[in-house]
């Protein structure tokens, strides 16, 4: 389920695109006092509401979005996902904390700078695509460029390029009502892409689509990400979507980030009982990699049978091991990093490799 595709520009840890620290968004009367007051800020949501009439939609959240990654914000309805992502460009005003984009303080931006941020640097793709009904596909896609003041010929040429990129070639002159839901969503995506933003912010963009079209669109995002290495922040309440798209996932509950990690870390080393329950039914073999499943160490043989890449998922390794009837090597740059056999692979499927309490990305314990 994970995106193991090789990126031309893999995510980097230096110079995050967004850097968020101690972020709070409290709705309700005298919201400002909540983050400042140790007693109030420690209350659970129901008690806080009873005491103050306030809802803390985002509670003391800190994270970086790295350049080139797909950063997924996941959680159940009401956990604070939309509020958090809207705070990034101040579509919702944060109550406390800091937000920087490329080192620039978003909370200190004036109106003009904010407009520039939303138009050029961090474009949002909404669930309801916000298409203009009387305009053609091409003009809808060109709309963001028009707002930026780009001339007609230039913006139409640019829009035509992006329309092709999202697979809508030949539909340029249609109106939105003449498109399917998935095609409309592609127009919304193309419109955001046309302005060539540094970051794309997706707010549950595919939740209204039927499952097959949804899968198509997910693959489209994976493809765009692979080809362009564009930084994306993606909200979803759908775990399989999060696991499929995310390089890293922030799992939210009651306004807090309860775990931030790769799909493999979240599924393989849940931070607490809530996360464990959340990921209980995930087919682990589609998420866990052989790097984690292998017995580390060179096989000492000359041939390295199997030749699995370290990021191959266990499901693929099972096919290799079952096909050959013998253990397979995990190989990187011609070097054997370790070996997986059927026992290790089954241990991952069964979840028994967690026994002994593996945590974070530490080497896992022996399968039993
Ligand atoms: N304008 C508002 N005024 C008061 N409370 C709000 C407001 N907007 C959101 N909330 C509350 O903040 C909490 C988080 O809402 P938010 O919409 O961010 O959650 P979400 O995880 O995006 O949910 P969903 O998946 O249903 O969209 C909820 O309890 C919600 O009721």
From TrEMBL:
GO terms for molecular function: ATP binding; ATP hydrolysis activity. It comes from the Bacteria. Transmembrane segments: none annotated. One of its GO terms (biological process) is response to osmotic stress. The keyword Glycoprotein does not apply. InterPro entries: AAA+_ATPase, ABC_osmolyte_uptake_ATP-bind, ABC_transporter-like_ATP-bd, ABC_transporter-like_CS, Gly-betaine_transp_ATP-bd, P-loop_NTPase. Residues 43-279 form the ABC transporter domain. GO terms for cellular component: membrane. Keywords: ATP-binding, CBS domain, Nucleotide-binding, Transport. It holds the Pfam family ABC_tran. PANTHER family: GLYCINE BETAINE/PROLINE BETAINE TRANSPORT SYSTEM ATP-BINDING PROTEIN PROV (PTHR43869), GLYCINE BETAINE_PROLINE BETAINE TRANSPORT SYSTEM ATP-BINDING PROTEIN PROV (PTHR43869:SF1). NCBIfam families: proV. Belongs to the ABC transporter superfamily. This is Glycine betaine/L-proline ABC transporter ATP-binding protein.
């Amino acid at each position: 389920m994970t995106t193991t595709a090789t990126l031309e520009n893999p995510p980097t840890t230096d110079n995050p695109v967004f850097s968020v620290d101690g972020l709070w968004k409290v709705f309700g009367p005298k919201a400002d006092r909540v983050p400042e007051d140790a007693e109030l800020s420690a209350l659970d949501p129901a008690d806080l509401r009873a005491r103050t009439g306030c809802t803390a939609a985002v509670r003391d959240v800190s994270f970086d979005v790295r350049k080139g990654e797909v950063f997924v914000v996941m959680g159940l309805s009401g956990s604070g996902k939309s509020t958090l992502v809207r705070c990034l460009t101040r579509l919702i005003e944060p109550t406390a904390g800091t937000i920087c984009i490329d080192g620039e303080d978003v909370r200190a931006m004036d109106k003009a700078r904010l407009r520039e941020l939303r138009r050029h640097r961090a474009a949002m793709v909404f669930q309801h695509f916000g298409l203009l009904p009387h305009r053609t596909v091409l003009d809808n896609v060109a709309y963001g460029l028009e707002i930026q003041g780009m001339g007609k010929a230039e913006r139409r040429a640019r829009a035509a390029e992006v329309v092709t990129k999202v697979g809508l070639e030949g539909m340029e002159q249609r109106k939105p009502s003449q498109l399917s839901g998935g095609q409309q969503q592609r127009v919304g995506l193309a419109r955001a892409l046309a302005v060539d933003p540094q970051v794309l912010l997706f707010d549950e963009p595919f939740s209204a689509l039927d499952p097959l079209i949804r899968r198509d669109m997910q693959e489209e995002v994976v493809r765009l990400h692979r080809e362009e290495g564009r930084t994306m922040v993606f909200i979803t309440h759908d775990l399989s979507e999060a696991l499929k798209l995310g390089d890293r996932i922030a799992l939210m509950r009651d306004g807090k980030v309860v775990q931030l990690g790769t799909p493999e870390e979240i599924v393989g080393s849940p931070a607490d009982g809530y996360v464990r329950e959340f990921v209980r039914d995930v087919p682990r073999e589609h998420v866990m990699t052989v790097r984690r499943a292998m017995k580390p160490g060179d096989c000492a043989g000359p041939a390295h049978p199997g030749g699995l890449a370290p990021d191959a998922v266990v499901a693929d390794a099972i096919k290799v091991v079952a096909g050959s009837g013998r253990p397979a090597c995990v190989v990187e740059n011609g070097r054997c990093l370790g070996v997986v056999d059927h026992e290790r692979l089954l241990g991952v499927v069964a979840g028994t490799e967690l026994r002994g309490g593996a945590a974070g990305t530490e080497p896992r314990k022996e399968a039993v």
